Amino acid sequence: MKFAAIDIGSNAVRLQISALLNGHLVPVYKKVEYVRFPLRLGQDVFDRGVIGPEAYAKFLKLMEAYKLLMDLFEVEDYVACATSAMRSSDNGQALVAEVARTTGIRIQIIDGDQEAAFISLALMDSLPEGYCLHIDVGGGSTELNLYLNRAKIAARSFALGSVRNLNKKDSAQEWDLLEDWVDAHTGEIDDKIVALGTGGNISKLFSMSGKKPGQRLSLRKLQELRSFIGRHSLDERIQKLQLNPDRADVILPASDLYLTIMRWAGCTSILVPNVGLKDGLLRHLYRQRQDQAAIDKK
């Protein structure tokens, strides 16, 4: 059985096709195909409020390509979700309707709370005991989830992200709201808070650090990496550091968000599991199928 998840972000659009392996007590997903296309819908939306004609046309072609891949891999079921850029655009709903008409793909435009909830599903196996602050920095929004002994006790989405920052569309008011939230929910905690980071930029920073999966990246090392990358020009980041062009320009503003939040919360290290929204969507899809199967048996 194969499932697919389409994650339509502000910086890139991802398709993951996974096979559900039988014979396990818990669902095990084996990745069989993964495609990431750097469409950057947020570039238009955060600047002009709409998805421009070029990105609009490319998105339609991309959904056609993803539909063909899902057909070729004989995907049994899928879920497609759009986040900050699509929900902020004046023509997002029109684009969703056209995609449904031309490809049959049904896209859900989800809010920040829904996005955080889906990502939380992917984190269940990665959460440590004690206090843990999950930080997910995307192109258009940042989601924070605070856990205590793997139970979520607070959550909030903020209109702050790497592409939004690059376009100088992040407001000082939103930064103040972020600082107030972190202080209100972590300021009185005496125990050590471990940060847990998801998102393409923190995953890239973690791989550049040379750390092995499961190891923690210290705040100091993260700051050193940010400074090291910042000493290189954009061209040098692409040519010398071999960062993808759509990663090379957003990795610094994303780094600043992770570092700032960690400092405000008093986190001295961060865990970086290799999961994201697409993984949470796959788990959500599996749960839906299980619930429907239980109903059908009654």
From TrEMBL:
PANTHER family in UniProt: EXOPOLYPHOSPHATASE (PTHR30005), RETROGRADE REGULATION PROTEIN 2 (PTHR30005:SF0)
Gene3D superfamilies: 3.30.420.40, Exopolyphosphatase. Domain 2 (3.30.420.150)
EC number: 3.6.1.11
Sections of the chain in a coiled coil: none
Pfam family, one: Ppx-GppA
Keyword line: Hydrolase
CDD domains xref list: ASKHA_NBD_PPX_GppA
Protein origin, superkingdom: Bacteria
Origin species: Cesiribacter andamanensis AMV16
Protein name: Exopolyphosphatase
Gene Ontology molecular function terms on file: exopolyphosphatase activity
Ppx/GppA phosphatase N-terminal domain: residues covered: 36-283
InterPro entries in the record: ATPase_NBD, GppA/Ppx_hydrolase, Ppx_GppA_N
Name of the encoding gene: ppx_1
